[in-house]
């Protein structure tokens, strides 16, 4: 958890049914006390895993910038994305294009990025899985969270795991 006032934590994740395949992305922004500011989910169509992971990070940073949040600590369970962001000229042209858009947004903010284990990224994972069957971008504000999202966030803020069962 971030303990510095004025900083926000952005967790992002992607979900896909293959590589490449139909994918969805999701993320959640919390303040330094762990309170949810907003969550988002968006279907992407067919993408590779790396492109989808970068797209969710781009979308999350774009929403943060548009809402006026400037101090963002990014947490992702995709180590490859952290490597992409720290080293120019990695990846195919579509990856490079998305990286450039991310770097452009980051130049307008103060950003940190770190790895988080998949088990600690359950809220973003759930949102990304839901996005695979969604129709369009959906931004949920703190008061709009319902059902499983609210439950996962409550468990997460209590330090308890969310156990996902396959249907």
TrEMBL record:
PANTHER family: OS05G0353850 PROTEIN, POLYNUCLEOTIDYL TRANSFERASE, RIBONUCLEASE H-LIKE SUPERFAMILY PROTEIN. This is RNase H type-1 domain-containing protein. Residues 4-133 form the RNase H type-1 domain. It comes from the Eukaryota. It comes from Sesamum radiatum (Black benniseed). GO terms for molecular function: nucleic acid binding; RNA-DNA hybrid ribonuclease activity. It holds the Pfam family RVT_3.
């Amino acid at each position: 958890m971030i303990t510095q006032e004025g900083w926000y934590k952005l967790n992002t994740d992607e979900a896909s049914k293959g590589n490449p395949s139909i994918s969805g992305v999701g993320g959640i922004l919390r303040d330094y006390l762990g309170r949810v500011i907003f969550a988002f989910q968006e279907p992407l169509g067919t993408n590779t895993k790396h492109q989808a992971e970068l797209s969710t990070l781009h979308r999350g940073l774009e929403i943060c910038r548009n809402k006026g949040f400037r101090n963002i600590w990014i947490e992702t369970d995709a180590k490859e994305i952290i490597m992409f962001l720290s080293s120019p000229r990695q990846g195919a042209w579509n990856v490079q294009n998305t990286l450039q858009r991310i770097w452009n947004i980051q130049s307008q903010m103060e950003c940190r990025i770190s790895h988080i284990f998949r088990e600690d990224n359950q809220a973003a994972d759930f949102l990304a899985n839901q996005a695979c069957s969604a129709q369009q971008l959906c931004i949920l504000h703190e008061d709009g969270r319902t059902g499983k999202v609210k439950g996962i966030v409550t468990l997460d803020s209590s330090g308890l795991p969310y156990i996902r069962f396959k249907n």
